[in-house]
Write a structure and sequence with these properties.
Elements: E1 4-10, H1 18-28, E2 33-39, H2 44-53, E3 58-68, H3 71-83, E4 88-92, H4 100-105, E5 108-111, H5 119-138
Parallel strand pairs: 1-2, 1-4, 3-4, 3-5
């Protein structure tokens, strides 16, 4: 069964980021089905409800305080969700991050960096790491791990 991945972001990518998002989206589709879902509301109560309705069966919060994963850890996470027939939904907050109640509802919390990333950068980094993890699982030469 093919892995289904969803990325849920608050806001839409700025024009400068769209080509990179499209680039990585196309590359990921070689290995998995991927859906990008952009929430366009600034009303906090509507935002919480919209995120909760779209979380799926394996929500993962992207938060600075989350677990830091190596590229091989990303590969293991993606392989685990595929094997267990789960569909991960990676959730990226807007300028103010994710609401605490959303983070608490997520089954996993991941940090892309110790620094705070602007949401477009976070989306691009996330897409690249998903691609890298999938390429590791597929055995392609994209990931060059040097000891």
């Amino acid at each position: 069964m093919a892995l289904k991945i969803k990325i849920l972001t608050v806001g839409t990518p700025n024009n400068w980021a769209k080509p990179a998002v499209e680039h990585w989206h196309r590359r990921i589709e070689v290995f998995a089905k991927i859906e990008l879902d952009f929430l366009r509301t600034r009303d906090k109560s509507k935002l919480n409800d919209a995120i909760i309705k779209r979380m799926g069966n394996y929500p993962i919060a992207l938060t600075r305080l989350g677990e830091k994963l190596s590229s091989n850890d990303w590969a293991k996470l993606l392989d685990k969700t595929r094997f267990e027939n789960l569909s991960p939904t990676f959730i990226i907050g807007g300028a103010n991050g994710l609401p605490e109640n959303i983070i608490l509802k997520c089954r996993q919390k991941i940090s892309l960096s110790q620094i705070t990333l602007q949401h477009d950068l976070a989306l691009i980094v996330l897409l690249e790491q998903i691609f890298r993890g999938l390429s590791i699982n597929a055995g392609t030469p994209y990931h060059r791990h040097h000891l």
